[in-house]
Amino acid sequence: METIVAIGVIVVGLVSALTLVNTALFYVFNINDRLIATNLAAEGIEVVRNIRDSNWAQGGGIAWNSGLDDGDYQLGYRSTSLRRYGVTGNPLLIDDSGFYNYVSGSVTPYLRKISITNLSGYEIRITSTVEWGRRGVTYTSSAEEHLFNWK
Length: 151
Known about the structure:
- The protein is an alpha+beta fold.
- The chain has one helix at residues 2-58, and strands spanning 71-74, 83-84, 93-94, 100-101, 106-107, 111-120, 123-134, 137-148.
- It has one domain.
- The chain has a five-stranded antiparallel β-sheet with strand order 2-1-6-7-8. It has a three-stranded antiparallel β-sheet with strand order 4-3-5, with no helix packed on it.
């Protein structure tokens, strides 16, 4: 009888320890996913800002918001123009250099959608949303910024 009770106590202790380790690992991966998604959302806004700045740098007859029409888009780190977001969007790929793109590399769980709304002739709202899933749960990270024609 004492052996059965001792085995029961050991089993309860092991199951509790394994559950704790499993939960801790889930949170570690969840925090890592959130960090990557937050940076991908910020990167999306930065790429749109770079397109706006390129329009300014070209000068001449190019409007500051040329190519930044209302709609949903997807873009990579090195994008110089926007690509329409499909019905479901394409997952981002990560290349050997660690850059996220839509051309080559390994498939990631992240989907990035850039939404552009021209609020007036001098203001644009950009919303960058990154979506991913883990263990059957869908998570979202989002960032918003307003760009102005301040020149």
